[in-house]
């Protein structure tokens, strides 16, 4: 965009670039989706990783790496621009499917997930910030709904596709060849077609009026971290809810395939169940993001956390494909209520001058939930069994909903 081109907010004014970023984020989600069905089974069937805690190390490493990369991504995108960070994320992600194909030991899978965590932290964080830049204040929920829907529909599609390929051709290499194509396409689109959006954030900052009691633009990184994590009521409530939400996803990613497979389901049906949860999650966000712009954020998030808790409890209490399919739908619906709405809360409250860094801090907490969930679920499963681990996570999720109901205030800007 040239210096003389007027900067305009809104989805309609920026539709071609917005849709391109939606497509790019779908490719980002597909990079994670290639692992969802196959890697937990690789741990058990190929590398003979016995203990649940040990088999979930790939999620722990992924979660912590992605979490801290999210934090760095916000500062880097403010300093150097959004597009260079996006391209760097794709370059780092290119080797991931190749490492998974060629891995002679479980350590290679761990190394691949370090790179995947960096890839996801840089690319997903940046596409979020770029869409918030383009959308402007009035349609942040809708923008985040489309962003997260694209990403998690791709997670679901890739989880189903890799499960089907694994059932037909084995766990390696066929499922991960899709990942090679995804990484190459993501890098090509980001390099050739994506445009910088940082100027939109600067323009908004110049015209921004902080809410009463709000915080202006002159904050240090430490102050932004403290506000987002602890001091600011809505931001801190969002951070803990995001962490618990991804704690749930870490459980579903690491233990659900093993629970379903050891209960007698075939690999194809396991793949369907693993895909169903993010599919409902992804589709639902196209509705819930827009609803949060109309109805507000707080009570959608509260309802979503309780709905997830019910779905997780049904996995623990039930058995069989039909019961678990209902549970997956409930988990997906609850996550759809929460996921774009939490990001919209951060966009509502944070000043445009430090919004990218606030998104990074929020996503630090949110994505550390993968690691925390893998550790909590793995240790509990080793000590008390798979179903006990699922029950523990259900209780944690319900508690998080209570925190949102008590601590968060409504953040939606009036029309």
Automatic annotation (TrEMBL):
Coiled-coil region list: none
Leader sequence segment: none
Domain named Major facilitator superfamily (MFS) profile: residues: 1-198, 234-415
Compartmental location: Cell membrane
Transmembrane segments: 18-34, 46-64, 85-102, 108-129, 149-168, 174-194, 274-292, 299-317, 323-346, 390-409
Listed Gene3D superfamilies: MFS general substrate transporter like domains (1.20.1250.20)
Membrane topology per record: Multi-pass membrane protein
GO molecular function ontology, one term from the record: transmembrane transporter activity
Keywords linked to the UniProt accession: Cell membrane, Membrane, Transmembrane, Transmembrane helix, Transport
Superkingdom in the source lineage: Bacteria
Transmembrane keyword on record: yes
Alphabetized CDD domains for the sequence: MFS_MdtG_SLC18_like (cd17325)
InterPro entries, sorted: MFS, MFS_dom, MFS_trans_sf, MFS_Transporters, Sugar_transporter_CS
Gene Ontology cellular-component annotations: plasma membrane
Pfam families: MFS_1
This protein's name: Predicted arabinose efflux permease, MFS family
Origin species: Micromonospora coxensis
Source taxonomy: Bacteria, Bacillati, Actinomycetota, Actinomycetes, Micromonosporales
């Amino acid at each position: 965009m040239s210096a003389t081109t007027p900067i305009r907010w809104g989805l309609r004014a920026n539709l071609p670039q917005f849709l391109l970023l939606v497509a790019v984020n779908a490719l980002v989600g597909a990079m994670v989706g290639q692992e969802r069905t196959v890697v937990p089974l690789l741990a058990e069937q190929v590398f003979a990783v016995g203990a649940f805690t040990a088999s979930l190390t790939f999620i722990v490493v992924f979660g912590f790496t992605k979490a801290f990369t999210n934090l760095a991504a916000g500062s880097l995108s403010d300093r150097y621009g959004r597009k260079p960070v996006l391209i760097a994320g794709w370059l780092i992600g290119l080797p991931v499917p190749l490492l998974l194909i060629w891995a002679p030991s479980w350590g290679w899978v761990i190394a691949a997930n370090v790179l995947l965590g960096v890839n996801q932290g840089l690319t997903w964080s940046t596409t979020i910030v770029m869409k918030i830049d383009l959308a402007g204040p009035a349609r942040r929920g809708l923008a985040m709904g489309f962003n997260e829907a694209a990403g998690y529909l791709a997670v679901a599609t890739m989880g189903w596709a890799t499960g089907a390929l694994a059932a037909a051709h084995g766990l390696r290499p066929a499922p991960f060849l899709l990942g090679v194509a995804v990484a190459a396409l993501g890098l090509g689109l980001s390099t050739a077609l994506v445009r910088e959006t940082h100027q939109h954030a600067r323009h908004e900052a110049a015209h921004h009026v902080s809410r009463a009691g709000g915080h202006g633009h002159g904050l240090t990184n430490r102050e932004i971290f403290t506000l987002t994590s602890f001091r600011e009521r809505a931001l801190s409530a969002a951070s803990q809810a995001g962490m618990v939400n991804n704690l749930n996803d870490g459980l579903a990613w690491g233990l659900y395939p093993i629970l379903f497979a050891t209960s007698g389901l075939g690999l194809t049906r396991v793949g369907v169940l693993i895909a169903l949860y993010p599919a409902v999650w992804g589709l639902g966000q196209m509705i819930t993001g827009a609803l949060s712009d109309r109805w507000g954020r707080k009570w959608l998030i509260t309802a979503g956390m309780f709905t997830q808790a019910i779905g997780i409890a049904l996995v623990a209490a039930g058995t069989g494909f039909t019961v678990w399919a209902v549970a997956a739908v409930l988990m997906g619906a609850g996550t759809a209520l929460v996921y774009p709405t939490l990001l919209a809360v951060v966009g509502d409250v944070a000043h445009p001058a430090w919004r990218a860094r606030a998104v990074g801090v929020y996503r630090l907490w949110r994505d550390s939930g993968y690691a925390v969930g893998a550790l909590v679920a793995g240790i509990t499963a080793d000590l008390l069994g798979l179903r006990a681990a699922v029950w523990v996570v259900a209780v944690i999720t319900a508690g998080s909903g209570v925190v949102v109901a008590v601590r968060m205030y409504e953040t939606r800007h009036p029309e």
